[in-house]
Every structure is written in C-alpha cells, then in structure tokens.
Write a structure and sequence with these properties.
alpha/beta; TIM Barrel; 22% strand
Length: 223
C-alpha cells in the first residue's frame, strides 16, 4: 500500500441508498473534487471545500470498524485522484465488495476488474451531457463479458431527459449490457411521472429513488 494521500470529503457508514444494492449496509468513501457542475448536484461541498488528506492506511483503519461490509467510493469524481487505483486494489485484496460511482466523463479502463462500476450518463438538463466519454460503453461491454456486474445510471430532470435517455439506450443497446437505473431529480420530475413513462414505454430499467433521502431528509451529509 502506498503512502499517497487522497483528499476525502467524508467517510461514513450508512445504508446503500441507490443502485441495485439499495438497502444494504455500506461504508462510503466520498472523495473531494469534481470536474463537472451538474445543475442538480446534491454534494456541492465535495468541490466547494477542500477535502481532508488521508492515506490509504488511514482509510483502511477506518474501514476496519465495519468488517465484511460493502464499500463504495464516490464523490465528487473519485477517478480524478491518482491514489484511487492502489486503494481499489488494496480493498479487493482485503476481500471487500467494492463499488465505484463515476460521472461518466473519465475513462474507466484502469478500474480493476473486481470493482463494480456505477457509471452515470449525464442527460441534457444536467448541463453536462456533452462531457461524456462514450468510449466507456465499449469498456463496460468488455468488462461484463468477464462476469463483472456494472451498472449505468441516468439522473432525469424532465420528460425531455427521459426521451433522450431512451434514445441512448436504444442506440447502444444498453439493456443488453448492464442493469439500468433511472433516478428522478425530486425538484423537477415527479417519481410518479417517471414511473408512468417507464410503464408506458415498457422500458427495461429500474426506477430508483434515493432511499437515504427518504429515510433522512434533514441530513445533507453522512447518508
């Protein structure tokens, strides 16, 4: 394990609030810094304030409080920090189930095979859809041929986003590739509206609500 510092916004233990693992206990490593500025961002503190430097050893010492628990690395954008790669290797070597949530703008080719990637595809109303690295689709295809279970997430702000995401799924045949998640932005797209759209179009996606926001609506961090 290297002594390279990572800049961390927060470490916390909670329930997994999103993904196909929603509801499971999870230890979260939220890294500081992000290269995107999505309009609906609910974790602006990751790039508005500097993170605290932590070594991989310090992070693993914290994780030792939660033996056997799934670990998710998120942000911000975790792939911006070079130290993420040796940390991922270390977590896998320790037998952890490891998830990595990434915003889709950076290549995932260096993510170890044992890590499950949750890849965001930004929709037009995020303001960031032109920043996507579409090479990641082929990388996901190659990874999942080897039995890895990755996921793709679309965060939707409007009906326009839904139609755009539906077209992307058809163009790349994403439903044949990995599980697909549709998550509504609460302030601009009602979950019931999104549910009706999914049913109307018989879209093979999972409607995802942020479980942690439902359980702890008054908390912005640590959930």
């Amino acid at each position: 394990m290297t002594d390279t510092h990572l800049f961390i916004s927060e470490l916390f233990y909670s329930l997994q609030g999103e993904s196909t693992r929603a509801g499971l206990p999870c230890a979260f490593i939220r890294l500081a810094g992000c290269n995107l500025r999505c309009r609906y961002c609910d974790s602006k503190y990751t790039w508005e304030t500097p993170g605290e430097p932590r070594t991989p050893a310090e992070i693993c010492n914290w994780l030792d409080r939660y033996p056997g628990v799934m670990v998710e690395l998120t942000g911000g954008e975790p792939l911006l920090q070079e130290g993420i790669y040796p940390l991922l290797d270390t977590l896998l070597d320790r037998g952890r189930t490891v998830l990595l949530e990434t915003n889709g703008s950076l290549g995932i080719e260096r993510v170890p095979a044992g890590v499950s990637v949750i890849l965001d595809i930004k929709c037009p109303d995020s303001g960031m859809h032109e920043r996507m690295d579409w090479r990641n689709i082929a990388l996901l295809a190659a990874r999942n041929r080897d039995g890895i279970v990755d996921e793709i997430k679309f965060v939707l702000s409007s009906v326009r986003d839904f139609e755009w995401a539906r077209a992307v799924i058809g163009r790349y045949k994403l439903d044949r590739l990995v599980p697909l998640l549709f998550s509504p932005v609460r302030e601009s797209l009602a979950a019931t509206t999104l549910a009706d759209l999914i049913l109307r179009h018989r879209l093979p996606v999972r409607l995802q609500l942020q479980l942690h926001r439902l359980l702890w609506p008054d908390r912005d961090r640590g959930v």
